[in-house]
Structure of Aldehyde dehydrogenase DhaS:
Amino acid sequence: MAEHAPHLAEIEMRDNGKLAAEVTMQVRYLADYIHYYAGLADKVESHVIPTDKPGVFTYTKYEAKGVIAIITPWNSPLALTTWKLAPALAAGCTVVIKPSEFTSASMIEMAKLFTLAGFPPGVVNVVTGFGHEVGEPLVTHRDVAHIGFTGGEASGQKIYELAARSFKTVTLELGGKSPNIVFDDANLEQAVKGVVSGIFAASGQTCIAGSRLLVQDSIHDVFVERLVEFMRGAKMGDPARMETQIAPIATRPQFDKIMGYIEIAKAEGARCALGGKAWHAPSGGAFVEPTIFTGVRNSMRIAQEEVFGPVLCVIPFKDESEAIAIANDVNYGLASGVWTQSLHRAMLMTDKIKAGTVWVNNYRATSFTSPFGGYKRSGIGRESGVDAIKEYLHTKCVWLSTDLNVANPFIRR
């Protein structure tokens, strides 16, 4: 994977329009995921359990669940597949991967590497197609033991319902409407960069997008002015150019969805401080200008529903209590950001925000060492870190009798 990273990155960039600068770094990093779980494969330790029952020796053991179905979206197909693939293989499972019908090319190319690396046939498999043709039969197949899925809430709910019919386990990483919270004691220059990273990197096409910017009212106007000024010069265009900062939207349906939400925001009374229009590149492509809405109420659709594009909602707040209330007043709980120089305030916010990840004075950092997943409708289970491998393992408890005499069979021990 390390050797073929530039080739894989180019294919993915051409397939979904992601910035070459980002996807190249992302694909190179995937080899580290493989190394991490290769090292973890022989470190899944069982436990001897002290028990209150005399004459028995009790211990646990972990066993691979079996065949794992991996279903991934179009925004980061190689990365989001590897997040599931690496721990599943380390657990001893085999996998069947269904990439998005929009972006299958990079996954098909990556699958060839498993043959080059010497994997036995049938351990890693790729099947392409639409959800109803491939995804649904895969989820309901009697030989599939677990489903690892990243994607939209509606698709995740359908998969969860189908899996429940045969009591399959699932790992679901779904949508987000993550709050990025800036307090008046924050380093504003750094916070502006963090907000930009949270929503405009990857053109907002990321589940962890900090799409709700909560700004303390005492600095609201100053901060928005700085943010707008920073984004005015953002370079849009060919994602293959290293200087490009805003890439095209990956699919035409997603472009139409984003433009629809921009019109919804305007109709709800939000004020467009920046962008709000499509941008037509000389070379073609579906672009949406970086868009910032002010005057947003948290009850608006634009603040409650996932847009999955470069659209930011700015919501003012008075104090910590109101910031917490607004941050948690949403159906999602995938990620969040807090910008403050107060350790007390940072710890308070990390305790009270209902989200699987809280970044303090940074945003959008992930690692193979650290668990990732959501609260509420943002999903079930965890990816990355030691926690992830347990998603693909059954826990078995073994009781060995050391007593020469069998106890009274009519009395449960």
In short: The first strand starts at residue 48 and ends at 49. The CA atoms of residues 112 and 182 lie 45 Å apart. The mean pLDDT is 95. The domain at 5-174+378-399 is CATH 3.40.605.10 (Aldehyde Dehydrogenase; Chain A, domain 1).
